[in-house]
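Pilot study result, target chain (342 residues):
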Amino acid sequence: MKPLISLDLANQETFQDSKYALQALFSPQKWEGDSALSSVKHFVAQSVYITVSQSPEMHTSLYFSGRAALRILLSALHVPTGSVVAIQGFTCAAVALPIVSMGLKPLYIDINQDDFSMNIDDLKRKYRENVTVLILQHSFGIVPAKRDEIIQFCKDHHIFLIEDMAHGYIPHSLQSPPDTLNYCALLAFGRSKLLSSVFGSAVLTPNKALSDVLENAQKELPNAPKSLVYRCLLYKMLLPTIKYTYPLFIGRILHRLSIMTKLFPREISSVEVAGQYDKNYEYKYPEVLAFTLHEQIRRLPILLETIQAAVGEYKTHLPQGMTSPTTPLNRFPYLLPKSSAK
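Predicted structure:
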């Protein structure tokens, strides 16, 4: 029986994750302290860039969600109200809503067809002096083809660069962080990402002063409600069973029941669906979720092999796909031809 492939049903969750979630659920010591949080911080700081030892030290802050991390980051930068944040047109509400909630204006830039990331020529055409921040998205986890040029553009125009790797990233796929303090990288650990603790996010920056502000802001956040954390653990506990039994319809029934009873937390809240920023995601990243993430990190090489094999399968059946079969992307992009319908 072939395994089910679905972004909604987190591909990376296995019965081993179920075991660790069950262990965490009944182990009070897994909820306390910061040993798992420290381990996750260390992994994040060491996993993104190749030349870590020769690069500036990367300081890491952890948050419950990527959209909360982005909003807190924009606040820490003291971006004046009415300023413009350049983002690409092909993105999600989790990027635009925090920007608008801060009284800032998103400036949408067109994308390339080969990497689905920001088009440097359209950026140059639309740039104006009140652009203070630029978010460079790694769509589907693909490194932007014009990354170096956009980094230089930000340096030349004194724009703070946020490298958005929330879709996913290939460990050690970037040579080094940009040689500037006006930079940070944003990662996410949601259920549709490379690594999942159901919710979670990290911000990396070489700017120690900015990192201190982010850490202080993180300490001021409330703890995530235990009921929400329990639901995250239940998601990890039950999901592998749902996926494994899905072809037998048992999994479909369990999945439908989980939606009807709201057993699992929604990835996008009803507030966000209505087009508003949801502050209910602004929590500290729980130690117990960091524990489940750390255990998944231990299996990262196996996970990457599995994803790479899945990409190869997609490439075989969808030869016009936009990526190499050897690239372990958590999402496989496929560009449809233009419709002939008028």
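One observation from the pilot: The mean pLDDT is 89. A full batch analysis is planned for the follow-on phase.
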